[in-house]
């Protein structure tokens, strides 16, 4: 099968189901399946998606829960409002999406390439890759379609700190290299419609600090974010980086297990025990990023508090399940393809009021 096929389908459906709309908009209203027109034959082969309400529902019960609600795909006329029209009289280069991918180090050059090319193949006009200096020429050689900025820096500094009266040696980032990288990257971030942070980032402390500051910068300005791979590790180290906004996390099973367990330890909570519960726990504890938990059955979860039409605070919970068979292999690059595709849907869903009303 195609790389990440079922995951892409679930994510496409999720974006059309208003998971990526602002929490301040009344678009969070739930719709019954009968309220949505059937999709034409070409898009009717949608995976099974259900709204799950049990906090620790066993994963094996996902496909058979009697309390779950079956959703139908939106019709063509609804979907077309989300996708930019191919009308050269109305749009210029870049208006169908400018996607930035932050990642790519001396060891990992393929991941940012897959994410950026996925964005282009999904329909974005331009894809930028912000990578380490040593990865730039390699990534440029993969495709002339990518705009590559080798502005990030790798490096580390050894420092000695005093802990309980004893000298302890530690490794930290190079502040000068971080400052230089941010000075060169920041002007470009203003131009991006969405960012993917993490593919091929690696674990270098200077690269990680740059990624952390890019996440904070983008989030403060409400630039849509997809955080994947080592970007999730950066977020684990500083969970306060994101709050609400247009943010999607794409952990695989191991990453979701570690992330949920770490949050539970930091809050003194018992760790959730199932994939659905872990995904729900992460989105609720971080105040509402969408969690796309990748696995045999993909889970798309959102759990936030929103304001109703009468001004009252109310919980909004939505959990979609994609158990349609995809690729039987779990090879490298599938998650990167997914991350790039999600970024395009994020950019489209926030480009205009018409697009927001389409979901």
Descriptive keywords:
11 strands, 11 helices, nine-stranded mixed sheet, alpha/beta, 359 residues, two-stranded antiparallel ribbon, 18% strand, 35% helix
Walk me through what this model shows.
The chain is 35% helix and 18% strand. The two termini are 28 Å apart. A nine-stranded mixed beta sheet has the order 3-2-1-6-7-8-9-10-11, sandwiched between helices. A two-stranded antiparallel ribbon has the order 4-5. The chain has helices at 5-16, 76-82, 110-122, 136-142, 175-189, 205-220, 230-237, 253-267, 275-285, 334-349, 353-357; strands at 98-102, 126-132, 147-152, 157-163, 166-172, 194-197, 225-227, 247-249, 290-293, 298-307, 313-322. The chain is α/β, with parallel strands linked by helices and 359 residues long.
């Amino acid at each position: 099968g195609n790389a990440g096929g079922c995951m892409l389908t679930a994510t496409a459906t999720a974006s059309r189901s208003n998971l990526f709309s602002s929490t301040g908009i009344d678009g969070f209203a739930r719709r019954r399946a009968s309220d949505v027109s059937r999709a034409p034959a070409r898009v009717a082969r949608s995976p099974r998606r259900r709204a799950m309400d049990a906090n620790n529902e066993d994963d094996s019960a996902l496909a058979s829960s009697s309390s779950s609600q079956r959703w139908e795909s939106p019709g063509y006329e609804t979907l077309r409002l989300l996708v930019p029209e191919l009308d050269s009289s109305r749009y210029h280069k870049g208006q169908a999406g400018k996607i930035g991918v932050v990642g790519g180090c001396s060891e990992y050059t393929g991941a940012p390439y897959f994410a950026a090319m996925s964005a282009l193949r999904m329909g974005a006009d331009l894809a930028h890759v912000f990578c380490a200096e040593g990865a730039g020429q390699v990534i440029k050689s993969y495709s002339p379609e990518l705009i590559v900025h080798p502005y990030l820096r790798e490096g580390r500094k050894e420092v000695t700190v005093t802990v309980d009266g004893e000298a302890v040696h530690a490794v930290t980032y190079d502040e000068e290299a971080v400052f230089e990288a941010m000075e060169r990257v920041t002007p470009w971030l203003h131009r991006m419609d969405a960012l993917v942070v993490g593919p091929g980032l690696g674990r270098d402390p200077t690269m990680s600090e740059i990624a952390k500051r890019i996440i904070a910068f983008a989030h403060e300005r409400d630039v849509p974010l997809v955080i994947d791979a080592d970007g999730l590790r950066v977020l684990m180290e500083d969970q306060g980086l994101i709050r609400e906004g247009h943010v999607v996390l794409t952990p695989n099973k191991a990453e979701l297990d570690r992330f949920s367990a770490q949050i539970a330890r930091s809050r003194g909570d018992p760790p959730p025990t199932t994939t659905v519960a872990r995904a729900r726990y992460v989105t609720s504890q971080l105040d509402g990023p969408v969690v796309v938990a990748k696995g045999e059955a993909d889970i798309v979860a959102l759990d936030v508090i929103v304001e109703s039409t009468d001004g009252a605070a109310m919980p909004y919970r939505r959990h979609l399940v994609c158990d349609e068979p995809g690729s039987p292999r779990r090879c490298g690059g599938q998650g990167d393809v997914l991350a790039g595709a999600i970024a395009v849907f994020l950019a489209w869903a926030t480009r205009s009021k018409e697009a927001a009303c389409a979901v």
